[in-house]
């Protein structure tokens, strides 16, 4: 099964409010030499996979390799046969090097999945799988990646070895709805998984301790809580939304630069499951913290990095 079919635009990349940022990226496609041809794209990706031309085995790290046919290599130490993208995020999606780079260039400009599919001649599912791969690569570079790929979110269940799967192994089971805290300081934002705090407890605080809550679809956010500017979660039909108490002293709207950037984007999410919600939050964190940088270059580097091991899931294999 593919990595999943998104039933709505919520599966797409984020669209900036009032600006079709992807159009600017379309106009600048010709300015990137690596987008000139498949050969140039492949060379660019290989530079990121094997910096300085130093090739190594993705399984044992050994450098004694010998070439096989069809671009494959074999490690003289552990005898593993591989190609340059083996074990890396880019090894998901079955896209050509040029298509991958064009997709990342447009995704950096917040093109939606529908737009990516149309511009690149892909099916919706193929574009969605590629964007999901990019989101996993972003999350894997967050300081709290190990926690987010653990049992508290269930995201690690989408990894089978170094490959993404369409459904969590074992069917996923019942995964608690994670609650996240937003903390912005000195122009940087940190979105933490708040361990030990359940969605039901957030509703309890609203009902009995007057914590202000706002809801937009299945998205719920609160007024400031402890040291966080807000708590945020993506619920499902199990939550008692009808018991949310409104207060007369204003809405639970965080007053921060990050919320100005992210609030509308969060509300635009449609059809996002609680389990996949961390991918979208970490994309927003990444975009905000790198808003003055070349996102395309960073995304290429992230995509070419190795998929990390998920020890909590290794035991189940």
Description:
This protein has 317 residues and is of the alpha+beta class. The strands form 3 sheets. A 5-stranded antiparallel beta sheet has the order 7-6-10-9-8, with helices on both faces. A 3-stranded antiparallel beta sheet has the order 1-2-3, with no helix packed on it. Helix 1 crosses helix 3, helix 3 crosses helix 10 and helix 4 packs across helix 5. The radius of gyration is 21 Å and the shape is elongated. The two termini are 18 Å apart.
In total, the number of domains comes to 2
Uncertain segments: 1-10, 13-20, 313-317
Mean pLDDT figure: 85
Secondary-structure element order, as H and E? HHEEEHHHHEEEEHEEEHHHH
Largest sheet: 5 strands, antiparallel
Provide the β-strand percentage band: 5-15%
Q: What radius of gyration results from the CA coordinates?
A: 21 Å
- Category from helices, strands and their pairing: alpha+beta
Strand order of the largest sheet: 7-6-10-9-8
The percentage helix is 25-40%
What's the number of helices?
11
Overall number of strands: 10
Termini gap: 18 Å
Which outline best applies? Answer: elongated
Task: Write a short abstract of this structure.
This protein is of the alpha+beta class and 317 residues long.
Reconstruct the topology from this structure.
Layout: H1 21-27, H2 38-49, E1 65-67, E2 73-75, E3 81-82, H3 97-108, H4 113-120, H5 124-140, H6 145-148, E4 159-160, E5 163-164, E6 180-185, E7 188-193, H7 199-209, E8 213-216, E9 219-222, E10 230-234, H8 257-267, H9 277-289, H10 295-304, H11 311-314
Antiparallel strand pairs: 1-2, 2-3, 4-5, 6-7, 6-10, 8-9, 9-10
